[in-house]
Amino acid sequence: MEMKIVRPKGPEIFDIELEKDLLAKNRGLAKENRKRLDRSKILAVDIMGSIGSGKTSLIKAILRKLGMGKKVAVIAGDLTTTIDAIRIEAEGARVIQVNTGKECHLDAHLIRQAIDRMKLDGVDVLFIENVGNLICPGEFPLGAHKRLVVTSVTEGPYTIIKHPYIFREADVIVLNKIDMAKPMKVNLSKLERDAREINPKASLIKTNALTGNGIPKVIEALGLKP
Ligand code: MG
Ligand code: ZN
Questions:
Q1: Pair type for strands 203-206 and 146-152
Q2: Is CATH 3.40.50.300 correct for 41-221?
Q3: Strand 172-176 and strand 146-152: pairing?
Q4: How many CA atoms lie within 13 A of 67 on its CB side?
């Protein structure tokens, strides 16, 4: 059988201009956010990954390991629900929910509004849980100091190679739910090789967020060691 590949035609000039403008504006706002965070001596981490990859579970596991040593705040991005905010609040962190409505990613402007509304006095670390999506969040930096992408073996063997852009953006790549590799028949070393090839500089860590396996390494990679 002959395989047919359909590729998009060249976009119209107007669309390119609009997109460039939007991304440039976002980058400007992200820089302002970073300055504000630096002034308040807050380390911010942008947590990205698909729906169900374990972003919230990872944040919860980190909070549990950090204990009382650090004061943590969380911005939970979601289209419409508050489920994650409630799950994280249970760990004792200060949480603000950002509902994006139809937007499939957080942007620097939304983060600025969230920061404005949060009580950030005394906060050491701010986790930002992005909307579950492996495509556009990569293109919209928020001003965070570190960008982390979490992917789980339950997403199958091709998640990393099919989303090179976001994995290239990452400072830390987390391979989660490693206990499921065998039952899912996913080759973990192949996933590691894919990640290394796409982004040799990122810290690459295997975790099981539910048991806490690998979490100390994530904490270290984020520079959160007490
Ligand atoms: Mg979540
Ligand atoms: Zn989006």
A1: unpaired
A2: yes
A3: parallel
A4: 5
Residues 205, 63: Cα–Cα separation, whole Å:
17
List pLDDT tens digits, range 153-209.
999 999 999 999 999 999 999 999 999 999 999 999 999 999 999 999 999 999 999
Segment 135-154, tens digit of pLDDT: 999 999 999 999 999 999 99
CA 43 to centroid of ligand 2, rounded, Å: 24
What spacing in Å lies between the alpha carbon of 15 and ligand 1's midpoint?
Answer: 32
Which helix H or strand E contains 45, and what residues bound it? strand 43-48
Give residue 49 CA to ligand 1 midpoint distance, Å: 9
Nearest bound ligand to the CA of residue 100: 2
* DSSP code at position 195: H
Crossing angle of the two packed helices 13-39 and 108-117, in degrees rounded to 10: 30
Q: What is the pLDDT of residues 31-60, one digit of tens each?
A: 999 999 999 999 999 999 999 999 999 999
